[in-house]
Amino acid sequence: MLNAQEPDLKIAVVTGAGSGIGRAVARLMLEDGFRVILAGRREPQLLETSGGHPNALAVPCDVTDPHDVERLFATAVRQWGRVDVLFNNAGVFGPAASVDEVSLPDWEATLAVNLTGAMLCAAAAVRAMKAQSPQGGRIINNGSIAAHSPRPRTVAYTVTKHALTGLTKSIDLDGRGFGITCGQIDIGNTATELMDHIGVGSGAVQADGSRKVEPTFPVEDAARAVLLMARMPASASVGSMVVTASGMPFIGRG
User: Fold this and answer.
1) Where are the domains of the chain?
2) Which segments in the chain show pLDDT lower than 50?
3) Which one of 85, 90, 109, 129 is CB 3.0 to 4.6 Å from 15, fit for a cystine?
């Protein structure tokens, strides 16, 4: 249980902490003095992320399972007394398909992780944060520049990221009276396995059907942007942030 005399020590839950942006954010938060609950489906990857840090706690969790999510946040509160920050990061890219090609199982699986999973984690976080009101807390949803402009043949992924923006705004509005804020970070072309999956480094499909090698930027820089949002004082909140690789085809995409 957290010592009541440590009010400046932040408790964060990071989902999808076993790889990519989630791993980088979890490690940076640990370096910055947070106590971090690392959530993800694969425990070995979570333990690799934690590196044996004394302020890290690995909790295997499937964000699409309501019981897993409740257990995750109950563990955080039981271990360290509260939840100050949720980095709602777990996600999948989903099928490479247009709307007439995507199968219903692939569509539902993408929504289950990217949207329903995010909602379940946010709901559990809000319940924990309301219980510690007026202290409240902060939720940071990991969107994507797909929340603004899609890539070709990414209908399931793009729809989930557009919907996540609505979830973000609704959480921020409904949390206002409880000291709970919610913001969204939309990241473009950070160097992760996901970018390898869509071929950013070898030639990603463009709107005209051509392929183009796109620039990327280090995942640690994306993590620093998330930490900036997490470390804002209670009197301020970053509602929306877009961070992309310099020169990537986002503005004017197509």
Assistant:
1) 11-187+218-244
2) 1-7
3) 90
